[in-house]
Specification:
Length: about 210
Amino acid sequence: MGLIHIDLFTTLDGVAQAPGGPEEDTANDFAFGGWQAPLIDEVVGEQIDSGMAGMDALLLGRRTYDIFASYWPHQNGKIAELFNRIPKYVASRQSPELEWEGSTLLGPDTEAELRELREKHQNVHVIGSLDFVQTLFAERMFDQLNLWVYPILLGHGKRVFADGVVPTNLRLVEPVVASPKGAVMQRYALVEGTPGVGKMVEIDQAENQ
């Protein structure tokens, strides 16, 4: 059974809108498109490359798909070769024309579609696609969250957890690493159950016994 990975780049205050470029997403007069570029360094690049190891499908929301489809088919290099080669699946409430080779529109039953994708592929990555990601969070329809947190505050913009989430347990799957420019990568696996509660005094007593 394959895994659904969510890959997101976010500021410290949770803004994940348009990290890649000024024209990526200007909705609501967002003026900081491309905020990620000044904070990229070799460590982040290596983390992104290693995270793509084994990727055998992309799952994208409509807006991110349009951005990718207008850019990657015209590029060269390791990432372009991978993205152009593997299957692309698009989640949309409409019926867009998908011109990027290897693209398929998902049906309306998201849960059933993801179940089929897990049977076809080992590592399906959702990159960006903030609107679609809200559905995945709300329905717990993902297996791993890969989150890069950058040391800036933007104050407004589309956020990672914009619509809230259901109470969910996550498990850190590898040590947290900070890059020279302060980006912190965190990889979490989805865990069954809901978060537990307790009193700190009880925890202190248990640790001292």
